[in-house]
Amino acid sequence: MFYYLRLNMKVNSSSGLNATSTDCYFDFMVRSIYDKSKKVINANDKQKALISYLTGELIPFNSNWGEVEHVLIPIFMDKKAHWILGHLDVANWHMDVYNSSFKTIRDNSVLDTVEPLRNVIPHLLRSSKVLKFEPPEVPLYCRLCKDIPHQTNGKDAVIEDDAECSIN
Length: 168
Prior knowledge:
By secondary structure, the chain is of the alpha/beta class. Helices cover 37% and strands 20% of the residues. The protein is built from five helices and seven strands. Keywords: Hydrolase, Protease.
């Protein structure tokens, strides 16, 4: 799904939206280098691969994060077996989080899931120097969006709708 969104964002410049996305492996790798108990980033060989996402080199039709305004990030809540969507607003330095099961999955669980992203993304952006400005050394501000369609069928297909809405 995100492959087609990236392709559409690259090819269809008439939309006026300057955006890209990651894939599920980005989220998995970010969580693997962040130690929640110590609140530290264990930079290792995965950091190079993560920076390849930011430079637009790792996945097809990806863009350099320094050349876009928005980045869509699929995020897996492994304790809940549920997908949510992160929408990074690069220029305004915050991330909107879309959870289609907000009536059954508590906000604290969502915030706990995105904590590694809030801390690792600024670190990666400073390390990679892809942005035209120096990112703040604080975690990303996250806003939980409530004005989205609610999931009623027990499936995670709503993340696709959230992603489509966020780029249109």
